[in-house]
Amino acid sequence: MTLAIIVHGGAKTISEDKVAANKAGCLAAVEAGWAVLTKGGTAAEAVEAAIRVLEADQTFNASLGATLNSEGEVELDAAIMEGATLGWGAVAAVQGVRHPISVARKIMDEKPRFLVARSAERFAAENGLEMCKKEDLIADEQWHEWKEEQEVLDRPNTVGCVALDANGILAAGTSTGGTTGQLAGRVGDSAVIGSGLYADGKLGACSTTGDGESIIPVVLAKTAIDFLGGDRHPDEAAQMAIDTLKSKVTGEAGCILLDHQGRVGWAYNSSHMACGYMTTELDKPAVFTKKEASALSH
Fold first, then answer.
1. Which residues pair with 148 in a beta bridge?
2. Measuring CA to CA, which of 5, 66, 150, 161 is 20 to 30 A from 82?
3. Strand partners, 278
4. Catalytic one among 42, 59, 67, 158?
5. 221 vs 240: CA distance, rounded Å
6. 242-296 pLDDT, tens per residue?
């Protein structure tokens, strides 16, 4: 029985003083998801658990700590997909929702749909999911950057997770606050099936991060999954997907991948990418902010 989980805290620039926080956040997320998997939980439950940890951590751009839009407000997008049934759920441009990944999961379990703005918020409230004042999700650092129109050097980015459970089922999830100063109502790739995430029961699952306007036209997550064909290692498939993006559009992106065997892969073309993973072959979780330090077995 192979179990595996991989998380990302975004393809971005990570300043030296944020390295420890990024590693700690990814480690906590991996541990939360791993605890679910080792107790016999589903891949979707593990993905939700891991992403909820990242959504509650101001280090990352998802829920608390999300970037502010042109109106100085937090608007959130999230989606989840399960590979065996191709079930999925997605929300976008939601406010006052503490854990958008949980709303996406509830939608997937009830009836796959993509709900936006007030409709998604109403669904969350009616289903007893955690709501809050929309102002409660504004972190001090993001507020000061927005108010003073500071250039954002250490820009937070999307979070995501992919997991493989004891039944061999794969799931992927992604959650984001979008981009700094984005137009109100702008939706990037994170909630778009095929671009921000994809799960295929026979091949693998993927979550992406980066510039949504670059990720969407190359359908990055599905592109990465397709490269897994022919038993290609996920690390190579991830790099091929990023190379494809670079050859077709301008923009930064990253992706994390698991195949149906539980092998791990990740790649990015930004300066850093926060990442962590755990599999049954490892003694303890591995966390990184740059790829060079990683030694994946092929």
1. none
2. 66
3. 5
4. 158
5. 12
6. 999 999 999 999 999 999 999 999 999 999 999 999 999 999 999 999 987 444 4
Report the distance separating Cα 61 and Cα 56, nearest Å.
10
pTM exceeding the 0.90 threshold for the entire prediction = yes
How long is the chain?
Answer: 298
- Give residue-wise pLDDT tens across range 179-237: 888 999 999 999 999 999 999 999 999 999 999 999 999 999 999 999 999 999 999 99
152: Cβ contacts below 8 Å, ≥ 6 apart: 67, 145, 180
For residue 158, indicate whether it is catalytic. yes
